[in-house]
Prior knowledge:
Blueprint: H1 2-16, E1 23-24, E2 39-45, E3 56-60, E4 63-68, E5 73-78, E6 81-91, E7 94-105, E8 110-116, E9 121-124
Parallel strand pairs: 2-8
Antiparallel strand pairs: 1-4, 2-5, 3-4, 3-6, 6-7, 8-9
Amino acid sequence: xxxxxxxxxTIGSFLFIGCSATTQNFPVxxxxxxxxxxxxxxxxRESGVFGAARTVDIYDFDKKIGxxxxxxxxxxxxxxxxxxxxxxxxxxxxxxxxxxxxxxxKKGEITKVKFDYLKGSFSLENSNENNK
Length: 132
């Protein structure tokens, strides 16, 4: 009986504990030497227990930037202008939109965006929220 309980406890804990890898589909720009002609977007997800084993897909308009895992960062460059980031999460082969955040990316600047897994939303860390 004890071994059966231990087995189910072990299996159950793997559902809530784990790690997820961040993968990026575009080259990572040098954030120490920012080009005056490009804007840099940086999306960060803090480490947390809930959803630690899950990744979310991050899109810039219709381009998939990558998969953002627990405590991960995606960084890419683009031309100046309107940016709309989308979060999509796959559940049993169905991809669901979680949040969309639009803002103006300015050349020569890094726009830092924080993703909160529990809230399922983006927030701008260093830009004006009224840039929408």
